[in-house]
Amino acid sequence: MTNKPDFLTNYAPTWGRRRLTPFSRVPATARLGDVWQTAAARGGSRTVTVDRPADIDPSGPLQRTYAGWAELVDDAAAWLYEAGVREWDRVAIMKSNHLDVALLACAAARIGAVPAQLAWTHPPEFALPMLARLQQPFLITDQVRLVQCGLDEHALATLVRRTIVVDGSDRTDVVALDDLRGAAKAKPKLRGLDEPMVITHTSGTTGVPKLVMHSATTAHALSLVEAEKWPGAALEAEDTMALADPFCHQRLSTGMLAMATITPTMLMLSDPQSEQALKLIRDNRPTVVETLPNIYLYWEQFAQEASRPLRNVRLYVNSFDAIHTRTIRTFLNATDHKRPIWVQSWSQSEAGAMVIRPYSRKSVAKRGHRPPPTQVLGWPIPGLCKARAVDPETGKKVPAGQVGLIEIKQPGRCLAYVGEQDRHELKTNGFWWNTGDLGVVSRLGAVRLVDREIDRIPGASAIELEDVLLDRLPLTTEVVILPSGGQLPVPVLSTQNDEPLVKSDWERATADLPTLAEPIQIKWEEFPRTATWKIRRVQLREQLLDGASALGIGRWT
After folding, report:
1. What residue intervals traverse the membrane (predicted)?
2. Partners of 90 in the beta sheet?
3. pTM of the entire predicted model
């Protein structure tokens, strides 16, 4: 019989389940273990389509009803139980990006285990310490990850309890998933509402990602925003939604709760660079699109195709980070809808959606404007979240309009950082959570993001400069401004088809900007990225700027 793990002893207290208003649409379930079964009961004949077969069912169809996917979750739960997974066991899922990562997490949660969803992009220096923090988990992986993550026989024997390989292996120290098929159905046994339910991780832009723990109670609070019937910007059952987010991320854990409540037709895209993913969009003409800021940036040329594949979209959503003005304008102009809406959600794995803002075509009409409209992220979610700015050194609240570290207070905050509770406590101040971002809170409560604290540059905002330069230089496909110790900030950029940057274009674009170093041009694929497509700025600085250091403290990253 397994015992409760050590990391339960110090987790933070949670708030109870709630709703934003008495009239709010609230999630139909708070538990991952029954999310697909709830969706099956509510979804009727509506379908969920993927862009390639599931790795756990490679001969299965690309399209299933919600009930069909729920059946696959039950099958997976049986396989895990057959492999020895029991209540309170941790199950690390680290395989190629696909909806089946989320399905496996739901299957583990369905039999009382605690899934830990890890990205498929990790090198050994990230994967091995993350597995160590999970205290001998079961591991579900694939052949590519065994090599990529340095999971040799010694590593597996040291770090994990048992390893299941979804695409088989001739190694004797692992179990092939095929050997578990046909197992008897496992009896569902779900975790309590305030007990740990799922572990995901932060993006890891500055080093080894932190493992973030949530319960059903915290996940329910985070998904209130997604289930809510926002005027003109609510997801509805009649929608066709294209979603291209990493399936290992906390965004999917809470997003599935809203999905099970509303049950729209879904296109779940695992590879936003693949032709098959884009074909699904062209063929199905979604009415709602959600993906990461940098995937939207990558998709700009797709959005401008003459066939107008996005002509039916009425709502775009981006979470995670600030979005670029040029990108919003491009996509709003790509639809034939009269009044499309773009919703920007500033979010973190630890606290979900904190600040939201809608955009219309008119609000992003000006090109290269300073400050860019997207730098004002919006307002804390009414009835759910509060925001303030504090001095990075003293922790005291700064006056409205003054730059400080942004702290937020809302009920969905995570329970813990698994294996690093000291880092979690460093970011808490009672019920306030330190986001690690520098910004300004106006007298009206609007949050303007300046920079990540560790990436700050003197007297300016890299976020602002990057947005303005992308807007003024249409050929650019990425722009990153790197701090460089006491030297001038260094712009790093890529362009369409790697066309050389024209010096006169650069001079015109930067004429009214703070003085920058000469730009460095690299290929788009040379930018080091996380699984959420964020730029690993620390790594990029180490690659390009020999000996240069950041100015920020970095205490909270």
Report:
1. none
2. 114
3. 0.93
